[in-house]
Design a protein that fits this description.
289 residues; alpha+beta; 3 domains
């Protein structure tokens, strides 16, 4: 059983020839798959590959991916400034200061970290590509493991609530028979009080009509099917969130009908307990991929 929560987090730091990778993946609930990648300028060429990798393993959830590279002092010393990019940045700063003199002046650190001021050579990217991809795959696996641990807890919670519904369903038929017997006895007494002789035909018609109006055998049967289906879905695992969401709607429909047809306090109590259990499950389904 592999059920994945849409909530998860993973981070990773890896040393490379150019410096240290600092990677983060964070995912939260979302109706569809949505990915936001925030990468340092020197790592942006890897973004298409990152997007393809994450989309191949995650089907739902809002995912934020942060990728940065902190260069070592040695590598930073080797870096060469792009004069054209630097001139353009300084011109932009001058324009801003003319329009807004109170603006903060860029520091040397700000300038050197500005995209394009210190360009990466193709050789640098080739040198770190393998390490980058291995680190990214490890990071993704860590996130998936976190999501699976959370998903397992959600599945166990839902199986427990589902079992409570299944057990309570077994108590309904005897309660229905008891309620019908009680109704029949009251109806006989009522008809006897209204007439000197008991009209058995009318009595039978009243009982049949009442039984048809309050019959919940279909609702009990469908709820039984739903509990079995829920168990099957969770055992199969995978991206089952949307299927479970639809199933919760079906659960709720039958519970509402059961409550509306109730003819005894005991049956009403069971129907209301179903609604509570179903709502508890529905809330957790919103977290499942």
């Amino acid at each position: 059983m592999k059920i994945f929560s849409m909530t998860g987090y993973a981070s990773l730091q890896t040393q490379t020839a150019l410096g240290q990778f600092n990677f983060e993946l964070r995912s939260v609930n979302h109706r569809y798959f949505e990915l936001q990648v925030k990468a340092d300028e020197q790592l942006r060429s890897f973004e298409p590959w990152v997007r393809e990798l994450l989309a191949s393993k995650i089907s739902r959830g809002k995912v934020e991916c942060r990728l940065s590279l902190n260069r070592t002092h040695t590598e930073a010393a080797k870096a060469e400034i792009d004069p054209a990019a630097l001139d353009k940045l300084l011109q932009m700063q001058q324009t801003v200061l003319q329009k807004s003199p109170q603006s903060t002046i860029l520091t040397v650190r700000d300038i050197l970290s500005w995209p394009g001021v210190i360009p990466d050579s193709p050789a640098d990217l080739v040198e770190i590509e393998q390490v980058f991809k291995q680190a990214m795959q490890t990071l993704l696996e860590n996130l998936l493991q976190h999501r699976m641990r959370e998903g397992t807890k959600l599945a166990e919670f839902m199986l427990d609530k589902n079992q409570q519904i299944a057990q309570a369903l077994g108590r309904l038929p005897p309660l229905m028979h008891s309620a019908m017997d009680s109704y029949q006895a009251k109806l006989v007494a009522k008809l006897k009080d209204a007439a000197d002789t008991l009209d058995t035909d009318r009595l039978q018609q009243e009982i049949v009509y009442f039984a048809q109006r309050v019959d919940v055998e279909e609702e009990i049967a469908r709820l039984g099917v739903h509990t079995a289906e829920l168990k099957t879905i969770l055992e199969q695992g995978g991206a089952v969130g949307k299927r479970l969401d639809f199933l919760m709607q079906e659960f709720n429909r039958e519970a509402n009908t059961l409550a509306s047809k109730s003819i005894s306090p005991e049956i009403t109590q069971i129907a209301l307990s179903f609604k509570v259990l179903i709502e508890q499950m529905r809330e957790q389904v919103q977290n499942i991929e």
